[in-house]
Amino acid sequence: MVGEEGAFVLGWDEVLTEEELSVTLKVLSMSEEEFKEYKEQDGWEDDSEGEDNSTLSNEALSRLKTPCKQLLYDSVLLTLESYGSDLKAEQDLLNNKEAYEKLSRREQRALHVRYGQKRILHQLLELVH
């Protein structure tokens, strides 16, 4: 369902892999009976059940149903736990000029990437909490 990488792509303003995330949330929040029906039909033939098919913007994420919000919240927490340090540690290193300059250029770029990823994940936690 989520493709070969098994990950969703989040941006500052919206989910960039919105179709994959939307389908995954629907399937994971189905009852056993709904899932059996879904499998028998090979998915949804016509997914226009009156649902909003617009992008999964930050505003749309904050309006998701509670089960979907909980799935996202738990997933984000698991993802954050997989990092070796927390957001504050990354921010402290970025703010410590002496320690930052001791890092290689590659380590500095990696730090910026990790920090950006964690900020997006923390933003998502706030949206779905």
Short description:
By secondary structure, this protein is mostly helical.
**Topology order in helix (H) and strand (E) letters:** HHHHHHH
Helix content: 55-70%
Strand content: under 5%
The chain-level structural class is mainly alpha
Number of helices, counting only DSSP H or I runs of 4 residues or more = 7
Number of domains: 1
- What CATH calls the topology is set domain protein methyltransferase, domain 2
CATH class annotation: Alpha Beta
Name the poorly predicted regions. Answer: 48-53
Q: How far apart lie the N and C ends? A: 25 Å
CATH superfamily name?
Answer: Rubisco LSMT, substrate-binding domain
The averaged pLDDT comes out at: 86
Explain how this protein is built:
It is a single chain. With 129 residues, this protein is mainly alpha-helical. It is 62% helix and 0% strand. Helix 4 packs antiparallel against helix 7 and helix 5 (87-95) crosses helix 7. It has helices at residues 18-28, 32-40, 58-62, 66-81, 87-95, 97-102, 105-128. Residues 48-53 have low confidence and may be disordered. The longest helix has 24 residues, at 105-128. The chain has a single domain, classed as set domain protein methyltransferase, domain 2. One of its GO terms (molecular function) is methyltransferase activity. Residues 4-121 form the Rubisco LSMT substrate-binding domain. InterPro entries: Rubisco_LSMT_subst-bd, Rubisco_LSMT_subst-bd_sf. Its main location: nucleus.
